[in-house]
């Protein structure tokens, strides 16, 4: 199967019917419907689309469109290397790419609109229009401007993914829900999810933290972090082609064997089996 290796691309395509593309994205594909109407199917879920619809897809061969009216699609494809820092750049955009880890681990990946809040949707549309402009302009400033715009795009997506996560679930206060969301956002930043940092950030007594966390989450802090990392590892096995060794390293496991052992313990199947099932489902 052909793979898309460019770190970032924007294409506008007008179609009367949809042909399955024999390729797979390195990561995500953001789709914006400029004109037209029809339906979108992802795995076994289906939703209508129209002008202005926005979708987010982890792999280009996991979905199809039933085009009822001639449709103009805007496809934005991107991966981590697009956000990599440059020597003469004062901002390390790579640090912002962690938002994709949150999105991967929590986005439902079903058919349907990505953004539910209308104001956020209009904001995102303006960002997409600015990306198209910079793609056409392509001067010495365009790459950095587009990096910044994509950072804003990821924040908008992350905000809307967060709004559909389970609510307070009977927590003592919104503070604990905010604490869990903070951990999910910064799952790969050990300093920002360390108990000492969390206690200071959320005003919790260090001596009380373990008891406070377990009473609210019905599991220990260590169990919650491990389960969250395994959930992200499962999503990366399902929806990306990232090597298992790299996934293990990013998530703080000793090696891929350690990750595989933990995955089998919690999911009763290893990383290879998870990825194989995804590939069979997409065939």
How would you describe what is shown here?
The chain is built from 10 helices and 7 strands. The protein has helices spanning 98-106, 118-137, 142-163, 174-185, 195-202, 209-217, 221-239, 244-250, 256-267, 271-282; strands at residues 2-4, 8-15, 23-25, 28-42, 45-50, 54-57, 63-78. Strands 2, 4, 5, 6 and 7 form a 5-stranded antiparallel β-sheet that branches. Strands 1-3 form a two-stranded parallel sheet. The radius of gyration is 20 Å and the shape is globular. The termini are close together. The model has no long low-confidence stretch (mean pLDDT 81).
Entry keywords:
283 residues, alpha+beta, Jelly Rolls, two-stranded parallel sheet, 46% helix, globular
Instruction: Outline the low-pLDDT stretches.
Output: none
The percentage of residues in β strands lies in 15-25%
Tally of individual helices: 10
The mean pLDDT is: 81
The helix content, as a percent range, equals 40-55%
Task: Output the helix-strand order.
Answer: EEEEEEEHHHHHHHHHH
Biggest sheet overview: 5 strands, antiparallel
| Termini separation | 10 Å
What's the quick description here?
The protein has ten helices and seven strands. It has helices at 98-106, 118-137, 142-163, 174-185, 195-202, 209-217, 221-239, 244-250, 256-267, 271-282, and strands at residues 2-4, 8-15, 23-25, 28-42, 45-50, 54-57, 63-78. The strands form two sheets. Strands 2, 4, 5, 6 and 7 form a five-stranded antiparallel beta sheet that branches. The chain has a two-stranded parallel ribbon with strand order 1-3.
Topology of this structure?
Layout: E1 2-4, E2 8-15, E3 23-25, E4 28-42, E5 45-50, E6 54-57, E7 63-78, H1 98-106, H2 118-137, H3 142-163, H4 174-185, H5 195-202, H6 209-217, H7 221-239, H8 244-250, H9 256-267, H10 271-282
Parallel strand pairs: 1-3
Antiparallel strand pairs: 2-7, 4-5, 4-6, 4-7
Helix pairs in contact: 1-3, 1-7, 2-3, 7-9, 7-10
């Amino acid at each position: 199967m052909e793979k898309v290796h460019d770190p970032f691309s924007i294409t506008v395509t007008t179609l009367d019917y949809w042909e399955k593309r024999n390729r797979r994205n390195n990561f995500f594909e953001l789709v914006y419907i400029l004109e037209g109407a029809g339906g979108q199917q992802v795995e076994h879920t289906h939703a209508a689309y129209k002008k202005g619809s926005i979708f987010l897809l982890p792999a280009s061969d996991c979905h199809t469109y039933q085009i009822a009216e001639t449709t103009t699609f805007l496809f934005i494809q991107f991966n981590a290397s697009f956000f990599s820092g440059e020597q003469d750049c004062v901002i390390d955009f790579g640090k912002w790419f962690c938002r994709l880890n949150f999105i991967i681990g929590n986005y439902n990946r079903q058919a349907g609109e990505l953004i539910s809040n209308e104001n956020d949707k209009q904001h995102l549309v303006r960002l997409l229009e600015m990306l198209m402009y910079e793609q056409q302009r392509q001067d010495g400033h365009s790459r950095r401007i587009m990096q910044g715009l994509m950072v804003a795009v990821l924040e908008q997506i992350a905000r809307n993914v967060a709004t559909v996560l389970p609510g307070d679930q009977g927590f003592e206060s919104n503070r604990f829900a905010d604490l869990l969301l903070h951990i999910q956002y910064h799952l790969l930043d050990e300093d920002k999810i360390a108990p000492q940092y969390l206690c200071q950030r959320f005003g919790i007594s260090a001596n009380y933290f373990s008891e406070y966390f377990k009473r609210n989450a019905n599991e220990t802090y260590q169990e919650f972090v491990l389960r969250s990392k395994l959930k992200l590892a499962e999503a990366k096995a399902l929806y990306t082609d990232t090597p298992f060794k790299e996934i293990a390293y990013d998530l703080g496991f000793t090696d891929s064997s350690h990750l595989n052992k933990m995955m089998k313990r919690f999911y009763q199947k290893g990383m290879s089996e998870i990825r194989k099932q995804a590939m069979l489902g997409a065939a």
